[in-house]
Design a protein that fits this description.
By secondary structure, the protein is mainly alpha-helical. Helix content is about 50%, strand content about 0%. The longest helix has 12 residues.
Length: about 80
């Protein structure tokens, strides 16, 4: 198997599949890229930026909770 398989499997055990391919191919390149970034967590939020040493901490500036994708999408009062 590919060395990337384990990483992708942790994100979504059903990948790759035809449904995901159809959804992503129906989006613009920018839209598909954003979906992949959000699903993988490799997006410009402080939790990821801290991991790659591009932010001083992983916390949301408003909530003082880790600024992860679920926090950004579901819990943060700033967005």
């Amino acid at each position: 198997t590919s060395p990337r398989h384990a990483k992708i499997f942790r994100i979504d055990p059903d990948l790759p599949n035809n449904r995901t391919f159809k959804v992503l191919s129906s989006l613009s390149r920018q839209g598909a890229s954003l979906v992949v970034q959000l699903r993988s967590g490799a997006v410009g939020l402080n939790a990821f930026l801290k991991k790659i040493k591009q932010a001083p901490n992983a916390l949301c500036q408003l909530c003082r909770e880790p600024e992860t994708v679920p926090h950004f999408l579901f819990f943060c009062r700033r967005f």
